């Protein structure tokens, strides 16, 4: 809880942008290409936002960058597996 | 890798792992009529001519590779009514693709205002369905075409129905249909690939959300200092993907 209070603004922005992305995704009717692109945008925002946040807090390291990229890739793979499955 | 493996199994052993689909004309008609009866409307009867028109429309969509009411060369749905010689005063069209059951198709149409308007219109007396399998826009899919019509003179002077899929025009010329009509598509596999991908996605996402949440609690309680990404970030991201998986329906209507 301390963690949430400490970075509340940052989490709120992340939550709203991702929620907006998901809502927009669900509105797309047929174009599979557009869906994949939007999924990519959602993931890239998550990675960018995480890295930016750590960068402003001056605790950014290569390990953290890799962590965000790997988790982003995992989410992307799971979503694509579901969409194409 | 896992996806590649599943796709290989799907290709080589569709009876073991594949998409289970069960859509047929009789069920579509029954569910449509049940909805009409609930609204106190007269039931629709199957018209072979409309079913032929729907089938021609389905074939045209696969041949010209489009997902729309009007073809890329500008043919409207009413062209197919004309092709089978259906002389109508009112006509309408609903389209669906990517659904697994007749019930899912009708449910999706009933949840859309314009499609619902077609399904519950008192102006129609007949309906025709075509369920056609093929590759559309790079995806293997089952297309459902529903065409409504009314030939009677009683409503001939009534006004045009205001709907994107509905229109009334002048009498057409009749032509004969060469290909056989498909009234149902039924494919059974031992393992339904859609259900499998859905369940696996859910398990993976929930497992990661649980692990990140547990890790966050332990780190906070034990006051461990760690240089790492924020677990809440990861949880929010995975919850977003989870929502997407939970709310995403593969079928679309038009």
Q: What's the helix and strand layout?
A:
The complex is a heterodimer of chains A (85) and B (254).
Chain A (H helix, E strand, L loop, with lengths): L1 H5 L1 H20 L4 H25 L5 H23 L1
Chain B lengths: L1 H11 L4 E2 L2 E4 H14 L6 E2 L1 H17 L13 H6 L6 E8 L4 H9 L2 H7 L6 E11 L2 E12 L15 E2 L16 E4 L3 E2 H29 L9 H17 L4 E2 L1
Parallel strand pairs in B: 1-9, 3-5
Antiparallel strand pairs in B: 2-8, 4-6, 4-7, 4-10, 5-6
Give structural notes.
The complex is a heterodimer of chains A (85) and B (254). With 85 residues, chain A is mainly α. Chain A has helices spanning 2-6, 8-27, 32-56, 62-84. In chain A, helix 3 packs antiparallel against helix 4 (62-84). Chain B has helices at 2-12, 25-38, 48-64, 78-83, 102-110, 113-119, 193-221, 231-247, and strands at 17-18, 21-24, 45-46, 90-97, 126-136, 139-150, 166-167, 184-187, 191-192, 252-253. Chain B is α+β, with helices and mostly antiparallel strands and 254 residues long. In chain B, helix 2 runs parallel beside helix 5 and helix 7 (193-221) packs antiparallel against helix 8. In chain B, strands 3, 4, 5, 6, 7 and 10 form a six-stranded mixed sheet that branches. In chain B, strands 1-9 form a two-stranded parallel sheet. A two-stranded antiparallel ribbon of chain B has the order 2-8. In chain B, 43% of the residues lie in helices and 19% in strands. Chain B starts with a helix and ends with a strand. Classes of the chains: A mainly alpha (85), B alpha+beta (254). Chains A and B meet through helix 1, helix 2, helix 3 and helix 4 of A and helix 1, helix 7 and helix 8 of B.
